[in-house]
Amino acid sequence: MIGAGWAIWMLAGIGAVVGLVDKSIRASMVFLLGLLLFSTLALCPGFYFRPHYFIMILPAVSLFVGIAISRLSDLTGRMILVRFVPLVMLGTTLTLPILWEKKFFFEVSPVDACRKTYSDNPFAESVKIADYLREHTSRDDTIAVLGSEPEIYFYAQRHSATAYIYTYSLMEPQKYARQMQEEMIHEIKRARPKYLVWVVTFYSWLWRPASDRLIFTWADEYTAQNYEAAGLVSMTSTKTDYFFGDVPSSVESLENRILIYRRNP
Q1: What is the DSSP secondary-structure string of 124-182?
Q2: pTM value?
Q3: Which of 52, 81, 107 delimits the end of a domain?
Q4: 200: domain range?
Q5: Residue 26: in which H helix or E strand, if any?
Q6: Per-residue pLDDT tens for 139-185?
Q7: Does 204 share its domain with 128?
Q8: Are residues 49 and 138 in the same domain?
């Protein structure tokens, strides 16, 4: 998380110390430390600490950096030869992370950047899938996504056939898992969505050895009886192959794939 941003965190630490020592701004430290504390607590409810969660504490960190630079400016303001040192230091501190990740920011496409960041998650693929669904459905049609990819609904601008737009809890070892799966199945059967998208990737389900697999068994049977194949998206760490319409029988079924089904007439 720190990486090339180490200088920012160092300046923030200096700013915190200065704030505690400098009597002229000590009164403001109650607010700043409170902001830092509650921003940190905001990371903790689920006890998952993914990198982007730490955006929550950046406002507090930025204020502490500001204190450090402001104090340094006060010390060097009357010295002509070094009066611009604080500005140069701040500029260098903010530029380092950009230079460190220059390939990510300036050289790769958004799709490649997304794949580099989120690897096996089908975020980039969801856009093309949604485009296909939007082109082949009307606004009155519903679609169903088996998996935790609600962005497909958003990009496709179509309503979900089920309230379960995330499926992680269906795989958890908890007493309502089977009931939730049964509810999702019932909602999909009742809505009869025109398209059903089955996301066969671990990160869209987070299944465990002890997970109830009822919904997978049902999906196999339900799609075989009521739907026809309309597309396949095969994903590897380096590329994604898209097949919309007729799926060639020669296409290898990879571990990470997304199946698209169209309801029989």
Answers
A1: HHHHHHHHHHHHTS-TT-EEEEESS-THHHHHHT-EESSS----HHHHSSSTTHHHHHH
A2: 0.80
A3: 107
A4: 116-263
A5: helix 23-41
A6: 999 999 999 999 999 999 999 999 999 999 999 999 999 999 999 99
A7: yes
A8: no
